[in-house]
Design goal:
alpha/beta, Amidase signature (AS) enzymes, 2 domains, 12% strand, Amidase, hydrolase
Amino acid sequence: MSIKRPTVEEVKTAALEIGIHFTESEATTYHKLMQGQLDAFDLVDSMDIQLPEVKYPRHSGIKPSSENNPYNAWAVKTTIQGASDGKLSGKTIAIKDNVCVAGVPMSNGTSILEGYIPDVDATIVQRFLDEGGTILGKSNCEYYCASGGSHTSHNGYVENPTVPGFNAGGSSSGSSALVAAGIVDMATGGDQGGSIRIPASYCGIVGLKPTHGLVPYTGVFAVELTLDHAGPITRTVADNALMLEVMAGADGLDPRQKGAVSQPYSEAVNKGVKGLRVGIVPEGFGTPGAEIEVDERVMEAAKKLEAKGAIIHTISIPLHAVGAAIWTPIFLEGTYDLMMRNNSYGTNMKGLFVEGLMDAQSNWKEKADELSETMKLGMLTGHFTSSRTKGRYYGKAQNLNRLMTADYDRALSEVDVLLMPTTPMAATRLPEKDAGAEEIIARAFEMVGNTAPTCATGHPSISVPVGKTSDDRPIGAMLIAKYHDEMTLFSAAQVLEASYS
């Protein structure tokens, strides 16, 4: 199929869009000159590309009825059986609906992508199947993954199975609900501001945001290249370590990765914490909206680590207190540029471009009025600031991010792991269906203060349950480690898990 050739008048119009004022004669000249360059586009269009092989048979699946979809956690149910044996043999897996599974519909929680069916498996999907896992379907997620609450998906609210009527957390809402309810053993999550760790905390399960670039993002709907993380959500620390073993490592296709290597994370699970230096970060406690019980339970978790031989310190990270503010321009302007203006791929990067996904995403403006309240606000702010200030604030935030990263690195040179609440509050009630934009936005972003900073810095962090509030809402503690030191995270997380089992 040939690329559509412009008319002379369209050349003049396109030139005006980039500030060039052609006369009729100049437009005619440049119209002719463009033809040879556009011939190259035609040649590219006529050539075949080599996509990764889709190895395992599957059917497109079904959208389950409400009776067969407890907590509204499934987007699509199907069954894809992997290899006959492997590390994940006997394990059932839910794939967050921002991840490509060939032949199975993918909506990313939106109305905009409805009807899109990927023709490739994401790298992590292929790895699960090669290691014998069984995929049971796609889990619901929030609209374009832009919410820490479970109430913004086009597919409806996702309910917390641990505390009925309450928020399951987001954006990996369906994944966490399915794991917490025991419907699957493990699920994928994505984390640009806390979207693995927030729902894990709210649902009382284990969620890990790995080191940036450790897990390939190939075939996952991109949000912002410097913030994108994919990781495991499980009921136990042991399963989390096992799942990461399969997910991690370079695939040669993701530009976020730089020599990423998987490690035998399962070996860390029973190593204990004797001599481990744990730093309590005061800036992570008593934050806006914090519940006293949450802070108290996390401090008690530190004492449990100390009782098992850890050495407890208090260590300040001053820039953590403003970390969410530093993250905000990066998230809003970067997301608007990559995800919306450039259809989730853009330019200036190598890797696997999923052309069908780009085509499906390119229609978003036609349905912009259907965006969630969180997306409308985020895109409005991101567009306004980036277009009026020439990207200055994105750049300054990234410069400040270097300082915040150094602040974390300094702290982690003095201790082995950092400790703070995952979220300042336990799960909140789901908004009423007719809630206004103010409440919807509040319930979507009130909890990101501790999780967002490490998305910007890229340090690995894990949420592990450390008890409940007096009204039985789960509480998560977050541990943060040096780059590529997930082994230490799993050792400490397992000790905490054992202390509360």
